[in-house]
Amino acid sequence: MKNLIKLMFLPILSIALFSYVYVNSIQPKLGLDLQGGISVILTADEETEPELIEQAVEIMRTRIAAFGEVQEPEISISGENSVLVQLPGLTDQEKALEAVGTTGLLTFRPVINSSLQLGYSPALTYSENPDDPDKPLVSAPSGVDELTGLSINDDPSTTSYLLSLSDGFPIIYELGPAGLTGNDIDDALAVFPNNEWIVQLNFKDESADKFTNLTKELASKTGDQRKLAIVLDEQVISAPSIAFDVNPEIGITGGTASITIGNSDQGESANNLAVILRYGALPVSFERSSIQKVSATLGENTLNLGLQAGLIGLIIVSIFLFFYYRLSGLIAILGLASFGALFYSVIALLGEWQGYTLTLAGIAGVIVSIGLTADSYIVIFEKLKDELKIGRSFSFATEKAVKDAWNTILVADFVSIIASVILYLLAVGPIRGFALTLGLATVFDLFYTRIFISTAVPFAGRINDNPRFYFPLTRKDIESV
Fold first, then answer.
1. Per-residue pLDDT reduced to its tens digit, 300-313
2. Residue 148: CB partners within 8 Å, gap ≥ 6?
3. How far apart are CA 125 and CA 157, in angstroms?
4. Contact 375/46 with Cβ under 8 angstroms?
5. 150, 121 in Cβ contact below 8 A?
6. Is pTM, for the whole model, over 0.90?
7. d(CA 408, CA 383)
8. CATH code of the domain made up of 2-24+295-480
């Protein structure tokens, strides 16, 4: 009875975990290559310090989590100055770039002038000849593109001419030097009081006076010059006006401010602005080296092919084990089946509790692990066959075979674990998924296989200890047993 309980413990554990996962509809979370999404590679200047890139990655993670609609994003440093951003489940490229976050400097700059007329810029001087309906360009300041009227290279410390598309149509703003930056913001939150969306700003203690002085200056002006533009990545994302009830002698005090966004339909715009203000700009400027879109259909096809490959591999291994090792092979197949159920359950629970995403490379690691586990059974069976050939009893031969084969299995699995750890620490992206699944399966193999086989084979031997039911022994082998 004790041996029977020991034999059934692992299969029952596997079935129990699998049942829990199935009943609660817990499935492995799929990565970008399996469910589709967006992959972006951001590259910084070669001389950028590693600490700045690490800080930028942390800000990106926080931004993406705040934006929402992105399932388990993978953000990792690739090489010395690149960042790989994978956004599974997101197929809208513009939304993906929004979720990644713009990478320029966040500044608050007073508005000097603006142009609502398409094709004209405050930076450019045009002919006033009434007989010239096209009003040809007469001159453009240094550093301003003559065609667009925008600053070629934005310098926050000087006057700039920047574009805004936040109102649905292009507006070119003439902006003064920056009075505040994203580093002056302590917090920002989108709220919906009185049936309108408002972004509430909290400035850091040391920046509150700077904001007050800036609003005092703007409150004393009229028209566009009462506006404070919020600039990110050389683009005006918002240009709210200072309220008319703000006293020019006092300004906005207390280190807080409110930006009115609009009615109930503007919730997403309010939240996006709050996210940008809350987390500020990245400490380093990135260029988007590549943007790759993986369709959900392609990901589904890839998943099906990977699962088919794994199933075919498992069937082939099972057929070989059964026809070559007979009853022992059947034991190995049952062990592989319960091992697979346990492994699937653990992967699903890791996704549910820790956010682990299964990629195509991870499936490859699972397939490789099938071979590793099957190898462990084969090593034990071959050692058992050798022990039976020299006349050992079935019970003693099993115990000695498991003990002797353990050293071989330990060395082989230890090599796999070392390789998995090195890959996980040094690699990025999907390769880490391969390393994790392979390493996890190898650890399972070390303990699961030994416990199961050391109990199952002796138990079967008590029912039938005829070696011919376990191995393809020759007549000479059988006569010597």
1. 677 777 778 777 87
2. 121, 163
3. 23
4. no
5. yes
6. no
7. 11
8. 1.20.1640.10
